[in-house]
Each structure stands twice: as structure tokens, then as C-alpha cells.
Write a structure and sequence with these properties.
Layout (H helix, E strand, L loop, with lengths): L1 H8 L17 H21 L6 H16 L4 E3 L5 H8 L1 E4 L2 E6 L4 E7 L4 H4 L7 E5 L2 E2 L5 H8 L6 E7 L7 E6 L1 E4 L5 E6 L4 E5 L7 H14 L4 E5 L8 H8 L8 E7 L6 E4 L11 E5 L6 H11 L4 E4 L7 E8 L3 E11 L9 E6 L5 E3 L7 E3 L5 E3 L8 E2 L7 H7 L2 H13 L13 H14 L6 H15 L3 H15 L4 H7 L1 H26 L4 H13 L3
Parallel strand pairs: 11-12, 12-15, 15-16, 16-23
Antiparallel strand pairs: 1-18, 2-9, 3-4, 5-6, 5-7, 7-8, 10-11, 13-14, 13-18, 17-18, 19-20, 21-22
Helix pairs in contact: 1-2, 1-3, 7-8, 8-9, 11-16, 13-14
Length: about 550
Amino acid sequence: MRKLLIAALLSGVGLTGNAQEKKEPTGFDVSRNLEIFADIYRQLDMFYVDTLSADTAIRWAIDGMLSEIDPYTVFYPGDDQDDLRRMATGRYAGIGALIRVHKKEDRAVIEEPYEGCPAQEAGVRSGDIILSIDGRDIKGWPVAKVSENLRGEPGTTFELRLQRPGVKEPLALKLTRRQIQLPCLPWYGIVDTTAQVGYLLLTEFTDQSAREVRHAINDMKQQGMERLIIDLRDNGGGAVSEAVEIVGYFVPRGSLVVSTKGKVPATCHEYLTPAEPIDTVMPIAVLVNGNTASAAEIVSGALQDLDRAVILGQRTYGKGLVQAVREVPYRGQLKFTTSRYYIPSGRCIQAYDYRHRTADGAATALPDSLTREFRTRLGRPVRDGGGILPDSILKVDSLPTMVYDLFASDALFDYVTDYAAAHETLALPGSFHLPDSTYDAFCQSVAASGFTYNGRTASALRGLRQLASFEGRLEAAEAEFDALEAKLKENDLSADLRRFRRHIQPYLEAEIISRYYYQRGAIQQQMRSDKEVRKAIETLKDYYNP
């Protein structure tokens, strides 16, 4: 039934057997398919064995149709627009806290209260286990449901009951919801005083981003900044106007940053920098990775095309599709793709073609052999084909799977909670370091917690053994399989915690720091072990020696 509903809404593909015809849809095609869809649902509603919910079934059809178009075209019904508003503004009404599930307790737990927000101001701490919200026991609730109940209308007050580890009696706190502005620029500062290198981490492009970036730049220039690192790693984008304004801080007024081209003339625009720049000569390095997308790619790509910055990291995601929002009946909103982005050299940053998919439904990507060459303002060659290829590609250290499992575990989270409870104060971010004795205590705590991790190699070996048996090759290699399986079963947790200490300890230190200095402290602490930031500093020194 669901497939029929989805197919019926695909107005470019008729339900009368002409799905393979390649022609431009006409108004009649649209009307015909919508009429067929309406009749199919009407007959299902009358004769299907079970009663159908119109809201549910039609939503299936809408979501199915939109998912076939591209991942960014989404319908938001009238009663479900919080995510859309948060994406546009970075704001929501709530208490300002990140939560996670504590598996052992089967409850949501406070992962981090945001600094300066109602939760932190009321005394909520990381590690606090949520018992109830306004008298409703939340045991077994998924994170999404807990989050929904913590949010609400600004000014409304509720009781939050918490169990704090190490405290016998539960805590009952009164919290008042208010508008929460998520930080798009959680930290900036001078990271190298010898070369006066400034650093700012921009996590998304909301309607406050350009203003905050301008303030950060001016503040660091007053501190003596002569070089700048803009960190756009894991920045998924946001408002294009904010990206254009930020690029305009570093290039002459009236410079072309990005253009959009769509089917309808109203969707074709050129975006020029709107104001006089802050600094057109200061050396700039931009850090990017595979999760740098959309507006973040506009900033990095425009600065590359205009020869205004050196780009370091990994190829960016390649999200070059532009979305607009239009109202639909009953207070709904439809966010849909209207055009493509083109940066100053003329190249499109879109990597994936969602209209021509592979047999398994995956979007296709343009192979490198078919990419085209473009030129930057100074004549350097750059290519299209999706995303921004950095001027300097940096290799990312791969983490062992055991470390991923540990980072997501209650074992590490609970250790940090206990550590913070036992230490009233802590060294400043960047100067904190766990001694060997403390790391040993951490290892003992993890071992005592019952933490286990998935031996993915052993799992793959079992699959290979089954395949060898199916092909009749197991008998000849069974001794080797047995020996390798025995070796892989030797998961020595204590040995692995020490073997992977160089991966674990920086993360553990940042988690501990965050309990005292919040997100800004964790970022500063991570600077110590961030090889890409160090490489950006070295690059700015080498490329731009005064």
C-alpha cells in the first residue's frame, strides 16, 4: 500500500504504464496522476481490510515522494516546525541542555548544560539523571520524547527531578523555559602568540553568525592578531546571506561570492559582498573536512577562488543545492530545492546527482575523469565535480573501533562524572593534563564497569568462514581460520586501553574540562592535540613570513 501511495504522488511518472517514457511532464500529466492518486486512496479508504489514518498514509506518500527527489526537500506540517525554525535561527525555547541515554539506568541523562542557559543557571550538572518532568516518570523514554517535553513555550515553568551521582536524595529544581540561542561561534582566541595567529570555530550559519564573526575578528585584531584560522570542519551550513557577509570581511566590497541558477528566473541570483571589508591582506587559513557543507563550502570555496585564503583538510561534502521555503495549506511549510550554487570561478560545488541513481538507489557522483577545470582570480587551476578540494590535503588519523565504542559508552561518561564530583576545581583549559596515575585509575574504572566492545574483525572472520564453507574451501583452511579466530578472541581490555592511550586521553581530558569550563573549555583543551590546527599555524607562518 505504501509503495502505491508513494508512486501515485510522483507526478512525473504516470500510474498507467508509461513510467519509461522520457518526456517533459505537462499540466495534463500532473492532473491525471493526482486524479489517479486520489482515487487509489479513496478506494483504499473504503475497502481496505483495516481502517486507514489519512494523516499517516498521506504523509507516507509525501515523505516517500520527497525522499526520491533529494535529501533536502522536506515537508513540515503545521504542528511540526521547530526543526525548521531552529535551522534558520539557531534558536528554540527550552532549558539549554544536551541530553543522552544512560543505558544502565534506562533514562535520559544530562550530557552538558549550555553555559548561561536556564539549566546551568538552576544548578543542573553533567551526569544528572532525569527522574521526572513535571511529575511524569521518564524511565524508558527515548531522547526525542524527553527533549520534546523539556522544550515548550518561553516563560513556562516546570519541575525537573534529578538523581545526582553521589547524592543520596533526588533533587527537585524549578526551571523556566526561555529562548535559547545555540552558539554558532563557541570559542575564538589567539592560539599562537609568536606569530599572532587567531582562531575561530564556526559551527553553523544562523542569522547571528556574521555579527559574531565580525565581533571575534575585531576583538582578536585588538589583541594583536596578524593571521587567522577559520575552522569550518563539521559545519553543515545554513544561511547563504551570512556566508556572503563573512566572505565580505576579507575581500573588496561588491565582489561576487556565489550565484544561483534554477529553472525559474526568480531563483537566479548573484550575491555580492554588501559592505566595506575589515581586512583584505591578513593571511587566512580555512580548515574543512568531509562534513563541511553548503554555506560553509561557499565561504571556503569563494575564499579559494578569490585567492584570499589557503584551504586545508579533506574534500568537502559537496552540497550545492539551494532550498527555499513556501507555505502550503493548513500552516504547513515545504522546504525544497530551487537552484544550484556556483562559486566565483564558475564551478558548481554539488557532488551528487539525485535524479540519476544507481541500482541500489544511491545518488551518483561525477567521476574525476569527467570534471572540468576552472581558474581562480590569479589563474590557479581548480576543478568542479563536487565539494571543495583543499589546497593542502591533510590525512586524518583513523580511530580504532574500540575507541569509538568507548567514547559512546556509559563507562567513560560515568568516570568523568565521578572525577568532577571528587575534584572541586581544575586547571585552566590547555594546561590540564592527566598524570599516569589518573589514567591508570580510569582504566581500572572502565574494566570494573563491565564495558565491552564489538570485535568487528572477529565478526567479519565468521562471515568469511561461512563463505569459505559455502564455496567448499573451509576444510583446506580450517586450521588457519581456527588460529586466527583464537587470536582475535584475545580482547584484552586493559592492554587495549593502554595501547590506544594516545587516542583516548585527549578526548578524556576534553570531557573532564567540559564539566568545569563547558564547550569553550573543551575546544581550548582539544587545541593541544589538534594536528590540523597546528598544520594551519605552520602553513600561515611558512606562506606568510613578514
